[in-house]
């Protein structure tokens, strides 16, 4: 049998996977996200990632609202 190698992914790798559509999991709460034309959003916790801001490279930002 072969050994299981641990898989460590950085936050940046997770965000790019989300943008590519390779990941469907919200980085905040773990629920499924909705891919729309202008953004990726989570209906459960309200997090939103704007594709425009991510494409500009000005820093990926999640907008969240408590409650």
Description:
The chain has 67 residues and is of the alpha+beta class. The protein has helices at 11-20, 51-56; strands at residues 34-35, 39-41, 48-50, 62-63. It has a four-stranded antiparallel β-sheet with strand order 1-2-3-4. The longest helix has 10 residues, at 11-20. The mean pLDDT is 78.
Strand order of the largest sheet: 1-2-3-4
- Estimated share of beta-strand residues: 5-15%
What Rg, in angstroms, do the CA atoms define? 14 Å
**Low confidence ranges:** none
Write the H/E string, N to C: HEEEHE
Shape: elongated
Largest sheet: 4 strands, antiparallel
How far is it from the N-terminal to the C-terminal residue, by CA? 48 Å
Counting DSSP E segments of at least 2 residues, the number of strands comes to 4
Structural class: alpha+beta
Question: What is the mean predicted local confidence, pLDDT?
Answer: 78
> What is the number of helices?
2
């Amino acid at each position: 049998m072969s050994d299981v190698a641990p898989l460590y992914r950085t936050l940046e790798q997770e965000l790019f996977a989300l943008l590519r559509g390779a990941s469907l999991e919200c980085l905040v709460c773990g629920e499924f996200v909705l891919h729309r034309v202008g953004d990726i959003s989570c209906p459960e916790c309200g997090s939103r990632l704007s594709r425009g801001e991510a494409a500009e490279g000005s820093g990926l930002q999640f907008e969240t609202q408590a409650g």
